Recover the amino acids of this structure.
């Protein structure tokens, strides 16, 4: 099958508008005749389900959580980007488009990214209308702050809980449609397979996680909005339930999986502190607006800190290395995430890390300068032009608390250290996945009728996602793209009638799911699912993590294949299938992670360049920055499933052509 991205003709500023004007429509009286399944109810899924239901379609929405309010979108704390130029600092749709392409190291599809920038302003208007309590300035206008990879303030925020507030807005829209009977909500259900009839997506097999019952659900179109696959590393900033199963199941049925090696490492995570840790905690990138990142200049000071003989406050200002400000003066602490992460790793690898853990991995995120600056400004604004040091500190801490209070509280509860008095300790960790199911301009996968939205698709971020763009993409896909493109597809389905669930295709899909479940429950192995998940995570982090090289990737492919054999031979899953069985849930998910992990290593091995979060150690310039190969690797790598042997997957290439942006080396200096 040839990849057809279906990018429309015309100038990039008019592509989406002109394209929408010529899409096919479904008349309002015909929409109730059509069923749509939405898998996942985070920002992308909830907004898509609510929008399509409001248009009049019959929607079935599925989530494995006990409520859509528990979707992982809730954890995106820092903000959401939009090109409204409220700060009058030179922002525009084009600049947001440019920053996103550049931030992704020129590995994103140009047309999709421009559309994202175009609809960004509409998202803010939609959310304000829903009652999302965005922060406002003294005049009542919506406030903005900066995020990495930009030189403007375009990030809208609600204190340190933006994702939560946006999800509640989408959830309110979802709930309204549930109340009107247009959405059937299936909480505590997990999709375990997609059903194709005559080549088209026609339904899913879902497991009721409470009773264990396998259910058949049919539809004229299926939307996958199930999030990313960061938990392939075991330790990540993702919720522990986040998984790749829905995306991987459609991959096994013919949906290409694109750029799986493109994974984002976030620079501001609380460092690993023990072997028994089950997840990592992210400190919002918004903190880099006010915090300065540093390590000691002298290696003996770093050693003393790790030994507990010195504290951060004992290091004099002239003995601190603000390494991001030193290396990237134009952007400083607000360089993109992949750049900041590698810089922190370089300092720690050189022996300057400050955290006393197994690998000495940790740097400081220090707010003392901001506390003093804001304290002085606040005092001056209050008419106190000669405040004491104590007054400055008190006012500065109050300003920080108002801006970031819940984040500081969370950090203190986890680490038992007061970030108002001592710098936060941070280190990069796996966060977001830019790879995902390949989709065309319509967000349709290579399976007709199967659409993919939000983090589950690959389309908008290239090799690195700019901060505050995840929420933007999820809501853009759900509110402002899918209602048009799904309707265009469904215009040919108004005469199809109800899709039967008694067909041979549904029988086969359900039997395959049941067979896999029975195999796990009857395996009688000796090791837990978590045992294998942790082993996979170690391989992935050490050999397919922040730094990658040919030898390590070859070893990872072999080691994961061996792990897969051992997993199926020796995993033990207690309980039965007809009950709540969390170990069974995990086994099914880890089976998919193992296959995906091997494909990620294969994808990283074939991509002989460094781009964004994909850092091949053999391909870097003299200053340790990414060294792209635009002649040979300016493409989307879309993999086609070929059976149980992941090494047999076939790579298809979608060439990336830039008409409106000039490809150049990224420079944040």
């Amino acid at each position: 099958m040839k990849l057809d991205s279906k990018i429309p003709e015309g100038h990039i500023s008019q592509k989406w508008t002109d394209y929408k004007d010529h899409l096919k429509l479904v008349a309002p009286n015909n929409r109730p005749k059509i069923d749509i399944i939405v898998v996942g109810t985070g920002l992308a899924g909830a907004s898509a389900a609510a929008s399509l239901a409001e248009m009049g379609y019959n929607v079935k929405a599925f989530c494995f959580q006990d409520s859509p309010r528990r979707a992982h979108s809730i954890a995106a704390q820092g903000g959401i980007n939009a090109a409204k130029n409220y700060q009058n600092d030179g922002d525009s749709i084009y600049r947001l488009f440019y920053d996103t392409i550049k931030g992704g190291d020129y590995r994103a599809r140009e047309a999709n990214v421009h559309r994202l920038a175009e609809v960004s302003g509409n998202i803010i208007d939609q959310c304000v209308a829903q009652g999302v309590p965005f922060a406002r300035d003294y005049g009542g206008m919506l406030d903005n702050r900066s995020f990495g990879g930009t030189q403007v303030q375009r990030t809208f925020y609600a204190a340190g809980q933006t994702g939560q507030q946006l999800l509640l807005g989408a959830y309110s829209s979802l709930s309204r449609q549930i109340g009107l009977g247009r959405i059937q909500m299936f909480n505590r259900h997990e999709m375990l397979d997609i059903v194709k009839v005559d080549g088209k997506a026609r339904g899913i097999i879902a497991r009721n996680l409470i009773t264990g019952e396998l259910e058949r659900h049919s539809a004229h179109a299926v939307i996958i909005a199930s999030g990313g696959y960061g938990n392939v590393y075991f330790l990540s900033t993702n919720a522990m339930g986040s998984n790749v199963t829905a995306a991987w199941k459609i991959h096994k049925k013919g949906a290409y999986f694109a750029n799986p090696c493109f994974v984002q490492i976030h620079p501001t995570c609380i460092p690993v502190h023990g072997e028994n840790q089950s997840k990592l905690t992210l400190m919002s990138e918004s903190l880099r607006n006010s915090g300065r990142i540093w390590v000691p200049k002298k290696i003996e000071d770093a050693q003393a800190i790790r030994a507990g003989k010195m504290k951060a406050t004992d290091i004099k200002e002239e003995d601190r290395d603000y390494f991001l400000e030193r290396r990237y003066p134009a952007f400083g602490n607000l360089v993109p995430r992949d750049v900041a992460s590698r810089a922190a790793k370089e300092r720690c690898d050189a022996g300057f890390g400050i955290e006393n853990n197994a690998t000495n991995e940790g740097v400081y995120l220090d707010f003392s300068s901001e506390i003093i600056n804001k304290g002085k400004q606040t005092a001056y604004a209050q008419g106190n032009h000669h405040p004491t040091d104590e007054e400055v500190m008190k006012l500065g801490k109050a300003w920080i608390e108002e801006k970031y209070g819940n984040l500081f509280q969370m950090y203190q509860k986890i680490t038992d250290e007061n970030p108002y008095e001592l710098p936060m300790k941070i280190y990069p960790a796996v966060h977001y996945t830019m790879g995902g199911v390949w989709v065309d301009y319509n967000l349709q996968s290579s399976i007709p009728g199967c659409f993919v939205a939000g983090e589950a698709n690959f389309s908008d971020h290239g090799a690195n996602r700019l901060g505050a763009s995840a929420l933007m993409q999820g809501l853009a896909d759900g509110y402002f793209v899918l209602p048009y493109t799904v309707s265009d597809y469904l215009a040919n389905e108004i005469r199809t009638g109800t899709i039967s669930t008694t067909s041979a295709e549904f029988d086969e899909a359900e039997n395959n799911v049941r067979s896999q479940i029975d195999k796990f429950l009857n395996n009688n192995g000796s090791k837990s699912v978590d045992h294998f998940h942790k082993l996979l995570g170690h391989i992935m982090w050490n050999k397919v993590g922040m730094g990658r090289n040919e030898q390590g990737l070859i070893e990872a492919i072999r080691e994961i294949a061996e792990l897969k054999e051992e997993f199926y031979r020796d995993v033990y899953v207690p309980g039965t299938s007809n009950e709540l069985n969390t170990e069974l849930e995990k086994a099914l998910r880890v089976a998919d992670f193992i296959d995906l992990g091997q494909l990620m290593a294969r994808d990283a091995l074939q991509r002989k360049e460094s781009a964004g979060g994909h850092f091949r150690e053999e391909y870097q310039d003299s200053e340790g920055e990414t060294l792209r190969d635009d002649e040979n690797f300016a493409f989307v790598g879309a993999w086609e499933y070929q059976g149980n042997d992941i090494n047999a997957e076939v790579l298809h290439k979608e060439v990336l052509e830039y008409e409106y942006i000039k490809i150049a080396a990224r420079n944040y200096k």
In short: The domain at 33-262+434-660 is CATH 3.50.50.60 (FAD/NAD(P)-binding domain). The chain has a mean pLDDT of 96. The chain has 17 helices and 19 strands. The first helix runs from residue 15 to 21.
